[in-house]
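User: Need the bound-state model for 4'-deoxy-4'-aminopyridoxal-5'-phosphate:
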Amino acid sequence: MSDIAYVNGAYLPLAEARVSILDRGFLFADGVYEVAAVVGGRLIDNDAHLSRLENSLRELRIDNAPPIQTIANVEAELVARNGLSEGLVYLQITRGASNDRDFGFPSGTTPTIVAFAKKKNIVASPAAETGVKVLTVPDLRWARRNIKTVALLAQVLAKQAALDAGCQEAWMVDRDGLVTEGSSSTAFIVTKADALVTRPNSPAILPGCTRKAVQSLAAREGLTIEERGFSVAEAYEAKEAFLTSASNLVLPVVSIDERPIGSGAPGERARLLRSLYIEWATKPVATR
Ligand code: PMP
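Assistant: Bound-state model below.
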């Protein structure tokens, strides 16, 4: 983690960053967050992240957060103060701390805003070369997964199950046997007919910012995209699989439940889309 964090208006050393034990984020997971990548000292695709943040706040009726431009300024300032050239910025907004633990919304609280930064090799990522292994697990989450809340326990357990099985990501599967998404990423497969398949946006998944950008880059390349659910069985038979997220951009998936996907090596489409995404994300916005 980088040294300087942000808490409610103050930039301070991470070790001194504190919130109240009565904060509703801590007590009820009553809050939302965003993670945006930094490459070349710039936040990547951050307008998309900020607009999803606004949507998450609206969905949870946290209506007295500062204007989104103020939030954007905090993120940029955090990048500058940490001298971050490549990595991630995490930002969380909760409904705040009141003086009691009532389930109903308290009146008169102000949202708690915290942010911190982390150095990470995002572009020159070893996982992009090797690909990642995926384990499928039941999707145990609630019904409003399009909101990016800090209620992440199902994803924590899913990711740990994957790690315990020697994998790097979990793909969660709904009651109909269809993959919803990764524990912290969007899931894609490439069919034998060369179509990119990913689940359509709905309350069943988080609308991935990277997913959206990758879909338009794929369309620009003339690739076929099918927005539909796909089963675990279909994924096993896919020509390729990959995942997308702000923290990993595009990563090839080389096995699912220990079955090699395609040749068992990173696929051609995943490699292409990763390089197109990096090129797009690092260009000045006006020239994209
Ligand atoms: N789905 C879930 C459940 C996630 O946590 C994430 C990571 N935020 C994603 C998808 C990917 O979203 P994005 O591309 O916006 O990082």
